[in-house]
Amino acid sequence: xxxxxxxxxxxxxxxxxxxxxxxxxxxxxxxxxxxxxxxxxxxxxxxxxxxxxxxxxxxxxxxxxxxxxxxxxxxxxxxxxxxxxxxxxxxxxxxxxxxxxxxxxxxxxxxxxxxxxxxxxxxxxxxxxxxx
Length: 132
Prior knowledge:
Blueprint: H1 3-20, H2 29-36, H3 43-68, H4 73-93, H5 99-130
Helix pairs in contact: 1-3, 1-5, 3-4, 4-5
């Protein structure tokens, strides 16, 4: 395996794990509070946040699988970028008043960096492979 393949795989697995962490929120309001510091939420907000946890888990699984299945890397990276960037933008526009939400933003900014590294390395591989 090439060094660039290892870098891409490491980035995708790392960002995948970041996306899997919110799955703990599926367990209920206490876990959601631990993740986001939002206190007790209403039934509707609880349902939405728990569903969000499942969707983030799916993104995480796609990223981890793509680390080992090259044909999935471009689409998985794109999904990861959209997921991560959308949260960063929404958080910047909204109010991230809790330290837990601020921590999530910082982690997602780092994840965007890893996704950028993975995307650039994978694109270089695709360009070299298609060659003149």
